[in-house]
Amino acid sequence: MLPTKYTFVITSILCLLMMQVSAGRFSDNELRGTEFTDPSVIFDMSEEWQNQPIKYSDWAEKADLAVSLDQFLYPFMLPAVQKYAKENKVNIAIQEGTCGTSAKALKDKEADITGFCCPAAETDRFPGLKFHTVGIASLALLTHPSNKITDVTYEEAQKVFRGDIYRWSELKTAEGKKGARKPIRVIGRPHCKLRPGHWRLLLKNEDEFSPRMQEVSAIEDMMSEVAKTAGAVGYETLWSLKQHAQQKVNTLAINGIKPSETDKITKGEYPIYRVYNVTTWEADSTKNEAAQKLVKYLIDQMEYIDPKYGVVPVSKLREADWKFKDNELIGEPD
What is the pLDDT of residues 44-91, one digit of tens each? Predict the structure, then answer.
């Protein structure tokens, strides 16, 4: 039998290895950012704040429920919210905004339910708040329609966005030929800088991106810049591409996997994606049973969501062994 001190060392090493494995298949990449935050770490708020009830703002003043959704969740959740309201005779006020809008609605306690297009930041995890994942969606790498490059490795994609690969001729087409001898123009939209996931799954922070990167603040600008710039590369969801179909762009496969291959995304084989979450309050001062029923309904409705939104529902993620804490997605499959 091994001495106790050696047993402890071996056990510690095994635990560390298990933690590394459970982090996901891409997590050993040093340039990749954090996928999720720890749901057990709660942001500190005063006792006075914790005892405050929900108080609706003007946009929801006479409602039974107030719902604030990020611009990505709003299009595919609005019909389900409206259907629920009609069938259950509930007056639901719903506003469209950003993750920042949702975070403010939480901090100010102005909404019963909020929606985010990213995993929770540590500063989003207020006392008495619970996150519920409704699904994930791929982030597609975009290029100008004249670009002959159709597939890159994950590491090549990182080098492109870092500026380490400067010209498209440093990459190969599907036929094995060099790409066009054009400088690569990186277009970036480093939004939701406090939150993990999304673009951080490509590069961990904005300082890692090419010093020549052109930063844009809106989806519309991302689409138009890539569509009109021959050497451009950017990123967006497939739903954003459909919304701005007049802007013609190509999408790149990563490691041979297209962003439209839902089965591969479900298995965790595609490296960059969005996580869609909604929240409910659990504390006595803010808890609303009607809100909890609505969130359960919304999660169930994701089973029937139109494929055009590119959302992989929670049930598929659970089947593929993604990791959850209650209803919140917190880890990739091994």
Answer: 999 999 999 999 999 999 999 999 999 999 999 999 999 999 999 999
CB 275 within 8 A of CB 139: no
Question: Hey, do 47-137+272-331 and 139-266 end up sharing a CATH topology, with the first three levels equal?
Answer: yes
Mean pLDDT of 318-331: 98
Domain range summary for the chain, segments of one domain joined by +: 47-137+272-331, 139-266
Q: Which amino acid is at 219?
A: I
Long-range contacts of 263-269 (CB under 8 A, 24+ apart): 265/136, 265/138, 265/312, 266/312, 266/316, 266/317, 266/319, 266/320, 267/320, 267/333, 268/24, 268/25, 268/320, 268/322, 268/332, 268/333, 269/25
Cβ burial of 265 (10 Å; 0-12, 13-18, 19+) is: buried
- Transcribe 217-279 into DSSP letters: SSHHHHHHHHHH-TTEEEEEEHHHHHHTTTS--EEEEETTB-TT-HHHHHTT-S--EEEEEEE
Q: What letters, b where the CB count within 10 A reaches 16 and e where it falls short, cover 199-226?
A: bbbbbbeeebbbeebeebeebeebbbbb
Q: Render pLDDT for 111-164 as a digit per residue (tens, 0 to 9).
A: 999 999 999 999 999 999 999 999 999 999 999 999 999 999 999 999 999 999
Backbone angles phi, psi at 329, to 5 degrees: -70, 125
Query: What is the CATH code of the structural domain delimited by 139-266?
Result: 3.40.190.10
Q: What CA–CA distance (Å, rounded) separates 334 from 330?
A: 13
CATH 3.40.190.10 fits domain 47-137+272-331: yes
- Segment 228-282, tens digit of pLDDT: 999 999 999 999 999 999 999 999 999 999 999 999 999 999 999 999 999 999 9
Asked if pLDDT for residue 203 goes beyond 60, the answer is: yes
Whole-angstrom distance between the N-terminal and C-terminal Cα of the chain?
32
Q: State the Cα–Cα distance between residues 116 and 25, nearest whole angstrom.
A: 25
